[in-house]
Structure formats: structure tokens, C-alpha cells
Amino acid sequence: MTTASDRDIHQAAQVLLQGGLVAFPTETVYGLGADAESREAVERIYQAKGRPSNHPVIVHVAPEADVSYWAASVPDEARALIDAFWPGPLTLILKRAAHISDVVSGGQDSVGLRCPSHPVAQRLIRAFAAGKPSGQGGIAGPSANKFGQVSPTQASHVRDEFPELVAAGMPILEGGSSEVGIESTIIDLSRLSQGVGPVLLRPGLITANQISQILETPVHQPDAQAPRVSGALKSHYAPQTPIKLVAGASILSDVLSLVERTTQKIVCVTHSIDQAMCPRHDRIEWVAMPTQPAAYGYALYATLRALDQAHYDCMLWENVPDTQEWSGIKDRLGRAAAAF
Questions:
Q1: Strand 284-288's sheet: what is its strand order?
Q2: What is the pTM (predicted TM-score) of this model?
Q3: Beta carbons within 10 angstroms of residue 169's beta carbon
Q4: Non-local CB neighbours of 331 within 8 Å, separated by 6+ positions
Q5: pLDDT score for 249
Q6: Which helix (H) or strand (E) holds 23?
Q7: For residues 236 and 244, which has the higher predicted lDDT (pLDDT)?
Q8: Contact at 8 Å (CB) between 36 and 58?
Q9: C-alpha angle 147/314/232, rounded to 5°?
Q10: Structural contact between residues 36 and 140, judged by C-beta atoms closer than 8 angstroms
Q11: How many Å apart are CA 3 and CA 5, to the nearest integer?
């Protein structure tokens, strides 16, 4: 695997310290990073992505970071989840420290914090933090794609997404394919003092059941007062090619009906159908996805991107099981299909 050199890391850290943007790998997806304490730098992320300014970004910190530098308070529940899941694909929403700009939280009084496990991300954060007077460097890093579109899991995806930033010299750190492949689980702990228990704001690889077991309390669904977070809009992670989610039991009949009624070129994506049973037609292609959620998540966005560039008229995509282990993938597919 090609990975960023020490020189690459040093140069990228200098760009961040000077207020510029850097694309970097994490175990979830590639991020578009800026100095989380610089309003001007974070605003450059919003501008580059075409992202609404009220849509929060997540601050990435190193394993040794002082979380209390970023959060006004760090409850015991947060410490327990940090001990259990950091470094890893879990974002904690906490009350934001007064000296941290609300640009990272879309104007809210909260802040999203995550410690990525990817070694390149950790090296970058540490090199960046070493250049900060406080020694506490945080990188604001939403996914490195245009707002609402398919997230990148390879450096090449970022280059395809932002040719204008590449031409302007933005560093893109190599780190191979993202191991998890979907964005982090987001859990809200910012309202514990108000009597509101932990709230799952975005599902991911780490499940609500896993969090509940650590905290020994139920994890709740979002209410109307829940903080806004990344990736929570109804339509998100969307390809340009129309995508329709269908049940595995009906995908064979659905595709044949569509071929009879239209002249569309269709790709059918399945994980449970025996490929030998799939009908063959010059306007139908079949793609098999992994049957296990971890492997499926790893392949999801790369597959979406590849199929989106293959000039199909329509994607028929078999929906995934409605279980905890599949909840993050089901969420991403649902939001991708909501655009159509």
C-alpha cells in the first residue's frame, strides 16, 4: 500500500498551520481537513464542498489529546466510550468549550470530536499539534467530496472530486483504501445534564447496542432538540445515476419488468442472490456485494462511485437487512436513494 512519507506529513502539517486545506485518510473515509481553531480555514472547507454553513464538521484529535481543551465538560459517559472505542469510528457530541469557534458546529453550542485510528491521520494530527502554541491540534475534517455526494475512500476519489484544489496545490495524503468505508457513528452526550440520555445521531460500524453495553443504559433515537450533525440530511451520499432500493425477494422480477417497460441500461447490485440465478440480458449487468456488513461497508462507496461512472441509466440495489450490524450501511443506502 502506498502511504504518506514523513516529508508528505510535514508539508501537509505546515499547510494546515498556515490556514490551508489538506485531504487525509481515515479508517472511515478520506477527510478534507483544516485547522479547527481557525474560522477562516474552516470556512474554506465549506466553500470548497459547497456545504451549508449551519452543517457541522467533526474535529479529529490525536489519541493523547486533552478532550477538555475542546469540550466545556467531559462526562464520565464520554470517558467510558473513549476508553472503549477510541481510536476508532465513533464521534462524541459534547458541549463546546467557550474558546472554540462555533464555525465547527454550525453555530451550535456543541462540538463533535473523534480520534481516528488510521496511522496517517494520527501522524498528521500529531505533526500539526506540535506546531500549535497550545500543543492541542484539532483538524476539522468532513468527507472530502462535494456536499451531498458519494464519500471518498481512496485518494484517487479525492483527486476526481476536487481537480481545482489539486491544481492549486492542495496536499492529498495517501493511505490506501479506508478500512471501514462508511462514516463514524455519532452519539450525542451534550444534554446529559438536562436529563437527556445518550442519543444516536448517525449509525455506523459501532452499533447502538455496543454503546449501550458500555454505558449500561439505553441509547435513544433523535428528538426535535437533538444537535445537527454531519450526514443527517434525508438526501446524502448520492450518486448522479438514479438508485432504487428493492427487496431481495423482488429484485429479479423488478429488473425484468423494468427491461420490458423501458430501454434503460440497468445495473443490479445484490448480496444475497445467487449470480447463477440472475437473468442475462444485454441491458442488465449484475454486481455481487459482500454478504458480511464489515466487508460490505468497505466496498460500498467505491462500488457506488465506479457504477456511477459506468453510464448506467438506473441502479437497482438490493436493500440490506434491518439489523444493528447493518444499520450504518442501511442508513447510507437510504439517504443515497432519497435523492431520487
A1: 243-246, 314-318, 266-270, 284-288
A2: 0.95
A3: 8
A4: 202, 203
A5: 84
A6: strand 22-24
A7: 244
A8: no
A9: 30
A10: yes
A11: 6
